[in-house]
Specification:
Keywords: FAD, Flavoprotein, Oxidoreductase. Belongs to the acyl-CoA dehydrogenase family. GO terms for molecular function: acyl-CoA dehydrogenase activity; flavin adenine dinucleotide binding. This protein is of the alpha+beta class. It folds into 3 domains: about 110 residues, Orthogonal Bundle (Butyryl-Coa Dehydrogenase, subunit A, domain 1); about 100 residues, Beta Barrel (Butyryl-CoA Dehydrogenase, subunit A, domain 2), CATH 2.40.110; about 150 residues, Butyryl-CoA Dehydrogenase, subunit A, domain 3 (Up-down Bundle), CATH 1.20.140. Helices cover about 50% and strands about 15% of the residues. It has 13 helices and 10 strands. The strands form 2 sheets. Strands 1, 2, 3, 4, 5, 6, 7 and 8 form an 8-stranded mixed β-sheet that branches. The chain has a two-stranded antiparallel ribbon with strand order 9-10. The longest helix is centred in the middle third of the chain and has 37 residues.
Length: about 375
């Protein structure tokens, strides 16, 4: 595991950090408190080549390694975590469209995603199911020329404005128990209902209802990219990237707080002179750097083709918790001015708190780690 970036990685980090600061930093709060989709910003990400970074060049991506994807996610999250989520999703999710769909189906969708013209959702969670992905009730019933989907998915990020979704469903009849489908969301028999969330509002969550929605046979994601097991493997990538999203967001709060403690005076000196302030920031900086290195360790394992479910789960439960604690302490250090909607700190806390749950709760991640540490026969 290289603990320093290559010169190419370091140059890429500087370039993305510059884009993030110039294009997305100042507008974060206005976007984060609006329910409007951030189409213009997504187009800028596409123009900068930051969508689908990890996809092959033939698929419209950059062919970037996992570490480069992590760099982009971390730096964009320092400006706007919702936009960083889009950078992460377009590298972690759409690869199955290239590997598992006919070119005439997957190719145009990937081109639209990587250019920023469209976005794609993942429809995995179901009402009452939560983290139990083995008991899915959405069914794929065979029909002439394809399948018909019945049931409801919930907590679908981007569900209100995505043009397509990857839908994981329980197949009726022979074959694998679970299958994945690329589903256009413009069908009249798909019902969408938006959630009223405190964070990630530009992306939004929704419930999707399928009432006999027809999916052509060539929209089934096949080959080695089919089924729930393949989806869980993709989640290892996304969970690691979530760790870096949280680190990036927390570092933004830390940056603003460092500037604040240098300027703010109490008892005749900058409050940075008080160890109760400076030591708190030093502790958070240490924990965030540890989480950052763990995340890049996980990505290095992925780049080497090694299993990294254990490390991905460590990133997923630990980094959001660290970020929540760090942002909360930054608010406290700002005093009464920190508890204000005019500053971004409160919104940063609302945004990052949701990542403690999305893509698997801390309890699920600890179970994954415990199974590898102790053995599945002892942990259930």
């Amino acid at each position: 595991m290289p603990f320093t970036f290559t010169s190419e990685h370091a140059e890429f980090e500087r370039a993305v950090a510059d884009i993030a600061r110039k294009e997305f930093y100042d507008g974060y709060l206005a976007r984060a408190t609006s329910d409007e989709p951030c189409r213009a910003e997504v187009a800028k990400l596409g123009a900068a080549g930051l969508l689908g970074l990890g996809l092959p060049e033939a698929a419209g991506g950059q062919g970037a390694d996992p570490i480069s994807v992590g760099i982009a996610v971390e730096q964009i999250a320092r400006a706007d975590i919702a936009l960083a989520s889009l950078v992460a999703q377009t590298s972690a999710l759409p690869s199955c469209l290239w590997d598992g769909l006919p070119r005439h189906v997957g190719g145009p969708v990937l081109a639209s995603l990587t250019s920023g013209e469209s976005v794609m959702a993942l429809a995995l969670t179901e009402p009452g199911g939560g983290s139990d992905l083995t008991g899915m009730s959405v069914t794929a019933r065979r029909a002439d020329g394809g399948y018909r989907l019945f049931g409801e998915k919930t907590s679908v990020t981007l569900g209100m404005w995505a043009e397509h979704a990857i839908v994981v469903a329980r197949a009726e009849g022979d074959g694998p128990k679970t299958r994945r489908f690329l589903v256009p969301l413009d069908r009249p028999d798909i019902a969408r209902q938006r959630f009223q969330d405190p964070g990630f509002r530009p992306l939004g969550r929704a419930a999707l209802g399928f009432d006999g929605t027809f999916v052509p046979a060539d929209h089934e994601i096949g080959g080695p990219r089919s089924g729930l097991s393949a989806q869980l493997a993709d989640l290892d990538f996304m969970r690691t990237l979530i760790g870096l999203m949280c680190v990036g967001l927390a570092r933004r709060a830390m940056d603003e707080t460092v500037e604040w403690v240098r300027r703010r005076e109490a008892f005749g000196v900058p409050i940075a002179r008080h160890q109760g302030v400076s030591f708190t920031l030093a502790e958070h900086e240490t924990r965030l750097e540890a989480a950052r290195l763990l995340s890049y360790r996980s990505l290095a394992l992925r780049a080497a083709g090694e299993r990294h479910s254990r490390e991905a789960s460590m990133c997923k439960w630990w980094a959001p918790q660290l970020a929540v604690q760090a942002v909360n302490d930054c608010i406290v250090i700002h005093g009464h001015t920190g508890w204000s909607n005019e500053m971004p700190l409160q919104q940063l806390l609302l945004d990052v708190s949701g990542l403690q749950i999305g893509d698997g709760t801390p309890q699920i991640q600890k179970l994954v780690i415990a199974r590898e540490l102790i053995g599945r026969e002892y942990t259930g």
